[in-house]
Design goal:
The chain has about 525 residues and is an alpha/beta fold. The chain has 17 helices and 14 strands. The strands form three sheets. The protein has an eight-stranded mixed beta sheet, with helices on both faces.
């Protein structure tokens, strides 16, 4: 027999033996643990002096974490839709919490998981374009309790949240911690995950907290008493430096919460207490995975959709502008194939990068229209182009002209304020969300530009609270121009590629969605 034929038969035989082995290689499970409205800096790994997130801190230091991770926009629905599609709000068309009907994309994360044979589950808050029925398993919770209240405890706790603590509650919540959403959710999540023995699965554990209503049970209420919490670096005295929208938001908050200045320290304590409860439940979830033998084959992503003022500028919640407390988010990747790095990863990343990263991790192609980049090479210790992650962009606003308080529209008529209901206001309203802002972060610098040409320039190392605006200062002209060029480059880059050209034209893209190549190659 011909030697070449023998070699070919041998090669084919080897392939036959390899293919079943490859087919049997399990795909990793994926668990996204998302909080709602968690600012990034209130944790030990970033120097906060109280034990707010001890478990997440230890997990981060033994895996991979980012201290320059950003949302795409400081509002829930735009951010969540971006996480699921890898597309920026200008591309999804979801620039507010009211625009899911306008959602535009080719293929999202849930569809990719299903194509790859994954079981899917949602436990917690949705507030994205996906529907509960799109998941194989769904238990939805919102800021005011479980959506489908099966037990009397569910009903009683939801009644309390809706009627006694709709906006905030200044005493210890009269329910045990076990009644809180995060505890109930982790119980449901573990029960479902432990049943998934024959299939890889994706689970979105989406905590509705620490978003308002700011309420918390003991022992967490007493853990963060107001007199022990470090003071904020800013106050209402700094509002005039931040602009008209901040001042309008302050007026709305004071109208809804006439005692806000007095209540603010306690509200900050409630916020930190809820973060600690979430941290304890994150630990319970991950230790449950370890006990069930699921941890080693699971990728965990821990992040938030956006931040919270938590007292910065004398404000609560979110709404005006793109300050770090609203735009920078916590982000940790842990588990399967993650290459540990104790220091924060030196990269600027976005919530839009989550979907393409997961695609790479599970062996799926990144769909057309995705604008985020895959972080998988850097997460697994491989080389990646540093320039690709040298900056990041954030979008804000639904467009049009800015609304002012000189117009006949009132808070009550618009729906931003419900009179006679303490702390019941909508900070995401016509005044705070009108117009357009863009933000770019690069190294220690940050530039913001709006649709009127008004600019902000900050050195975040020297001025972390962004109250010393250096825009148009002659001394910083070179840095300002550098960041304006960076912002313009990003704006061109995130123009929607959909629909891609038809007929002869060839649409080129990098397998990881990188824009800049590694010069070492």
């Amino acid at each position: 027999m011909n030697t070449k034929v023998l070699v070919s038969i041998s090669a084919i035989s080897s392939m036959v033996n390899v293919i079943p082995m490859l087919a049997q290689t399990p795909k990793p499970n994926v668990v996204i643990i998302m909080t709602d409205q968690q600012r990034a800096d209130l944790c030990g790994r970033e120097g906060f002096p109280m034990a707010v997130t001890p478990f997440a801190d230890s997990l981060a230091l033994s895996n991979v974490w980012f201290d320059k991770a950003y949302t795409v926009a400081p509002a829930s629905m735009p951010a969540r839709c971006s996480m699921f599609t890898g597309r920026y709000p200008t591309a999804t068309h979801v620039r507010t919490n009211h625009n899911t009907l306008d959602m535009y994309y080719k293929k999202d994360m849930l569809e990719v998981f299903k194509e790859q044979g994954y079981k899917t589950a949602l436990v917690g808050k949705n507030h994205a374009h996906v529907k509960g029925k799109d998941f194989d398993y769904c238990e939805e919770y919102f800021h005011w309790g479980k959506n489908q209240r099966d037990t009397q405890e569910d009903k009683d706790f939801a009644f309390f949240l809706n009627n006694k603590a709709r906006g905030q509650y200044l005493e210890a919540t009269p329910f045990p911690a076990e009644a809180q959403n995060p505890v109930k959710m982790v119980t449901k999540a573990l029960a479902w995950a432990e049943q998934q023995k024959d299939s890889a699965f994706f689970m979105w554990v989406s905590m509705p907290e620490p978003h308002n209503p700011y309420q918390i049970s003991e022992p967490y209420f007493s853990m963060f008493s107001p007199e022990k919490i470090p003071a904020t670096l800013t106050s209402r005295n700094d509002l005039s430096k931040k602009g008209n929208k901040y001042e309008i938001l302050a007026e709305l908050e004071d109208t809804a919460c006439p005692n806000l200045a007095k209540d603010l320290p306690r509200l900050r304590g409630n916020y930190l207490g809820m973060l600690r409860l979430i941290d304890d439940q994150t630990k319970r979830l991950i230790e449950g995975f370890k006990a069930a033998g699921l941890y080693e084959n699971t990728i965990f992503v821990i992040l938030s959709d956006h931040g919270d003022y938590c007292g910065e500028y004398g404000l609560i919640r979110k709404g005006a502008g793109v300050p770090e407390c609203l735009t920078r988010i916590p982000m940790i990747w842990a588990g399967y194939n993650i290459h540990p790095q104790k220091s924060p990863m030196d990269a600027h990343v976005s919530i839009a990068d989550v979907f393409p990263t997961i695609c790479t991790a599970i062996g799926a192609d990144i769909p057309l229209g995705v604008q985020g980049r895959s972080l998988w090479p850097m997460l697994t210790g491989k080389s990646y182009p540093k320039k690709e992650f040298s900056s990041v962009i954030v979008q804000q606003g639904f467009g049009g002209e800015d609304f002012t308080r000189d117009e006949p529209l009132t808070f009550a008529k618009e729906g931003a304020l419900q009179p006679n209901k303490i702390a019941h206001f909508d900070e995401l309203n016509t005044w705070t969300q009108s117009g357009t802002e863009r933000m770019v972060r690069k190294d220690d610098w940050k530039l913001v530009l709006d649709n009127y040409g008004r600019g902000e320039l900050y050195n975040l190392k020297a001025d972390p609270s962004e109250i010393n605006n250096l825009y148009n200062k002659k001394k910083y002209a070179s840095k300002q121009m550098e960041l304006l060029e960076e912002l313009m480059t990003w704006e061109l880059r995130v123009q929607d590629p959909l629909p891609v050209p038809r007929n002869r034209y060839h649409f080129k893209r990098n397998p990881y969605n990188y824009h800049f190549e590694d010069k070492k190659k």
